[in-house]
Design brief:
The chain has 305 residues and is an alpha/beta fold. It has one domain: TIM Barrel. The protein is 45% helix and 16% strand. The chain has 10 helices and 12 strands. The strands form 3 sheets. Strands 1-2-3-4-6-8-9-12 form an 8-stranded parallel beta barrel, surrounded by 5 helices. It has a two-stranded antiparallel ribbon with strand order 5-7. Strands 10-11 form a two-stranded antiparallel sheet. Strand 10 and strand 11 form a beta hairpin. Helix 3 crosses helix 5. It starts with a strand and ends with a helix.
Amino acid sequence: MDFFISTNWNSTRHATGEALADECLALGFDGVELGYRLNELLAEGIRRRVTAGMLKVSSVHAYCPAPLGAPNGHPELYLPASRDADDRAMAVVLLQRSLNFAAEVGARAIVVHAGRVDDVEPDSEALLDSADDDGIDSERYQKLLSRSQSQRTRRVKRHLESLRRSLDTLLPRCAQLNVALCLENLPSIEAVPNEDEMLELIAAYNSPHFGYWHDMGHGQVRANLGWIKSHRETAERMLPHTRGLHIHDVTPPDRDHLPPGLGELPFADFAFYGRANLLRVVEPAPGVRADELRDSLAFLKRTWA
């Protein structure tokens, strides 16, 4: 049972990719996911470690390496589900660059944030405020959630059409490189695609190079706020199409990217992930201590054994 760690944890603390990789491996992880904070200079060191057979790369989180000229690395600089043609076109160009890099370092997948539905009101922030003030079972919260879901349903079609145009361009390149493009679940009501839409896309493309990436922290946030009924049931429903995981803990309702075992996510309920053939990537916040990560890795191996 291999576990990888996202370089988003430590990429801002190192001047070389070699030092970044060595710190991750010293914690006991089997390799790394190259995160969107990785710059071109660090990427050179990563290439050298991979070429020397000293580093395994599970996946690449787009956009990676961070585009030159961008103020900082971010997974939503451009969105393949954007209704803006120029924004969508740039997303496709940069995703092709991430795919090429993934193939170069031997990664099996790239992780992608597809987009968000425009102008949903109330938005996720307003829903979170109501959840904090009133609770998700309150009449006020349920009315706000119903209104958000109705607006999202009316407006999502054009975003899904944009996303499919992007996939139509990208998936043939994925097949050439033998790298899977995986869309990640996101912790917002506006996120595209949601779980049902993801299943529809998977059925439509029926491609070994297209799949779902389950972020456990995001899934727990979605359940905490009532956007899905059950995190575990949703994870089990998506499991046949899941290529990889982001693993981090959560305290309700939405404080995530905590070390596994230090929040309230019931990891024992997800022991099926220990048996599944997928990529397991721990994705902690940059401020998490090394000793906490060692303990979390031992906790996961023990809980999912």
